[in-house]
Amino acid sequence: MATVVPQISPASVPSRFEKPTLFDVPISNNGGRCRFVIYKKNIERLVAIESPKVLGGLKSEAYLALNPQGLMPLLALPDGTSLPESQVIAAYLADKYRDEGASFDLPTPELRAKDMLVQRIHDQYIAPIQGAMYKDMEVAQRAKAIERLAFQLDVLNGLVKGPYVGGDHLGLADAALFPTLTFMRFILPQFFGWEDLFVHRQQLGHYWAAIEADPVGAKVINEIESGLESWKEAGRWEERGIMDQVAQKDYRWSF
């Protein structure tokens, strides 16, 4: 584990990391993108995973010294370099530890282009609006975002041929996509009345089955779902008035 202590001064933060340290929490789908790479490459001995709480939380002085955005995940390197943003972190880990564990290299320019395309769709069109499933939001804005999520799922269904985004080859798009699908699969049927995420999206359903059958994929799914279960038990969707909004018949919620 990284030798870090709470509330350390920003100037001394980088020198405290004896090995690369991922700051993340299990429920995070963006963090799940990075954890999947770590687990598939079997590099837990080389890369530590810590909660931002060890530095005082996301908005602490120590954490903001590493990532002024105050967001996670964040990878802190022993040389003092800080790498925020899940796409950057996942790509770095796959490159840095290329010779360890599973490969995320794709064999052709076409597969590499598709992999990047799916990552872009995820990062540009899904991640910015995924909060509509669980954050405070005006009802019309939420309804529109849920509709857009459904549209992007349809787009992805036409791109993902299975068993992985790159066919038989695992890529970084897989690391990005399935943790967010975990959020959707848990939330949309339970709280927005969807029949099933994959009933009209069979290619995505085949893809999900392949990831779920992978022990490492299943591990990340379980980490995220355990966190979502804690949200459910705490009444998150009721407390934020989301269930009251979904009860309004002027909007469509299920796609």
UniProtKB/TrEMBL annotation:
Pfam families: GST_C_2, GST_N_3. PANTHER family: GLUTATHIONE S-TRANSFERASE OMEGA, PTHR43968. SUPFAM superfamilies: GST C-terminal domain-like, Thioredoxin-like. Residues 18-101 form the GST N-terminal domain. Residues 108-234 form the GST C-terminal domain. Coiled coil: none annotated. It comes from Coccomyxa subellipsoidea (strain C-169). This is Glutathione S-transferase. InterPro entries: Glutathione-S-Trfase_C-like, Glutathione-S-Trfase_C_sf, Glutathione_S-Trfase, Glutathione_S-Trfase_N, GST_Omega/HSP26, Thioredoxin-like_sf. GO terms for molecular function: transferase activity. One of its GO terms (cellular component) is cytoplasm. CDD domains: GST_C_family (cd00299).
